[in-house]
Amino acid sequence: MDRNTVIGVALIFTILIGFSYFNKPSEEQLTAAKRTRDSIELLRIEQQREIATAAKLDEIQASAAVPLQNDSLTSDQDNALKEKFGVFAAASVGQEKFYVIENNLMKVTLSNKGGRIYSVELKDFKTHDQKPLILFEGNSSKFGMNFFAQNRSIETESFYFIPSDSAASSTVKGPDVKKGKEGNEKFNSENKGDSIIFSMKLFAGDGKYLEYKYKLSYNSYLVGFEVNTSGMSNVITTNSNYLNFNWNINVPRQERKSQYGEDSYTTIHYKYLDDAADNLSTGKSEEESLRTKTKWISFKQLFFSSAIIADESFPTADIKTELTKEDPLYLGNFNADIALPYDGKDSESIKMKFYFGPNHYNTLKQYDQSLESLINLGYVVIRQVNQWLIIPTFNFLRNYIDNFGIIILLLTIFIKLLIFPFTYKSYHSQAKMKALKPEIDEINEKFSKDKAMEKQQATMALYKKAGVNPMGGCLPMLFQFPVLIAMFFFFPTSIELRQESFLWATDLSTYDSILNLPFTIPFYGDHVSLFCLLMTVTTVLSTYLNSESQNTAAMPGMKTMMYIMPVMFLFILNSYASGLSYYYFLANVITIGQMYVFRMMVDEDKIRAQILINKKKPQAPKSGFQKKLEDMAKQKGVQPRK
């Protein structure tokens, strides 16, 4: 080994020794590293302990055939339960049992596991495929309180409650209910029925418990719900101002899948204490935090709702929808985390109620909680038309007639009679306009397209001199249009029409398919609705007859649009409620009949002669509208027509 090699090796060793010396950890660093190693070891031991405890609990719960008491557990099992659940250890094991309370309208199944409402069945209704109509089932729902007790997170749905009655089923009795009085609270006050109170208690030691108390009365869609605490002030963490109540359900499909069916109406609705009702969006998943006092929250479907209503208010709530449009069994998942007020007293009571029932306008309105807003009846004027005209008339006819096809026919005739005077006046005005066609043609030939203002002035002057009101034909539409739109909202949401048949339509609340197509037409669907076809044909015929009595030469674009609209409605209404298409079809048939009657009643030659006489009379003073037109023309440099 030469000298240079020796020197190089020596330098390397010197550098390594120097680097090790200068980078040696200090005493503080050594102490910190030891603490870290100790913490990791403690965490590993704690994790092993938790795994062992969980394994013991699983073994205990798997082997439990009946509710266990502390004295029936081994010492290790008892310690494991107490370490995990504290004072709720004895209630952590058991066997799930079900208890049914029912009245004439619904069957409510309660479970001792969680003390919760397991499922609700509405007895007077069936699904679209004639199965029992169940609003939600326990296997796909959550229902319970969440809170901290003795530094442990407690979820009540994991514990076994003690029922107040060991009977598996209890039925509430009462007098016979008249048709149409189902769930009517006024009828109930005049015809007293029985009620039942069923209690579920979660014990936390001697004299200490959390209680769910349910009350069900005869002929009612309401279920009273109380959350009571007794002796829990030293159990529940004292700094808790609220107890969290979680309600989560998978919303089952009740109706036949349709493009404009349940999916278009299912969402969560809610109402603030001092504000109007509102809702999450339909057709898409959404969530919202309600940070204002809330009166009620409803899991709403097209025809049925499950709602929780506070006697006073819920301080806050978080609501969420997750929609699953392609799922054949469920519409989506709805979740509500609701804060319940809690003062930390030794005994407290929080009172609420549930509504499990149909979205029937009069039934919901009777509670005076704005629950009727769950039914989409349109906005502003349209909603008023439904509330004060359509629904009262429909309910009156329903009291005497069972056939809903006949009810819709009579409803259509009634509405047509209401606007008949305006319809006749409209036709008479159109006849006058038609009689002026020669003069209108002269004006159109006289003025070129670049003299639109002069043409308009000349036309208005002609109308005034002949005594014709060009807006006279708009009156019937002014009255009829809100009714037509009101029906557009009423029929698809009217539970009265649900599963009611007429002629070939098996269900007037959905489309009447007479032919299923092997393919899907965009915007139209994969079926053919006969009532929709009949509506389209009669609309085109009505449009043609109406255009004959109008002067549309000056508005060729308008005439084209009049024929395009029926085709558009053919695509829109093909998947809508057949009751709506049936109503529009009847309205068209009556309108066509009216036109032929008016033609026999109105003498167009006589109208033409009267207009000529009016033209020879001295010109009346200019109207405010005509003066305004002339002023606008002057501003544009156009001289008024002499």
Explained architecture:
It is built from 16 helices and 22 strands. With about 650 residues, the protein is an alpha+beta fold. Among the domains are: about 95-375, Beta-galactosidase, Chain A, domain 5; about 385-500 and about 580-625, no CATH class. The strands form 4 sheets. It has a 9-stranded antiparallel sheet, with no helix packed on it. Strands 6-5-12-19-18-15 form a 6-stranded antiparallel sheet, with no helix packed on it. α9 packs antiparallel against α10 (about 450-465). It is elongated, with a radius of gyration of 37 Å. The model is unreliable at about 50-70 (pLDDT under 50).
Question: Which features does this protein show?
Answer:
single chain; 642 residues; Beta-galactosidase, Chain A, domain 5; nine-stranded antiparallel β-sheet; six-stranded antiparallel β-sheet; 16 helices
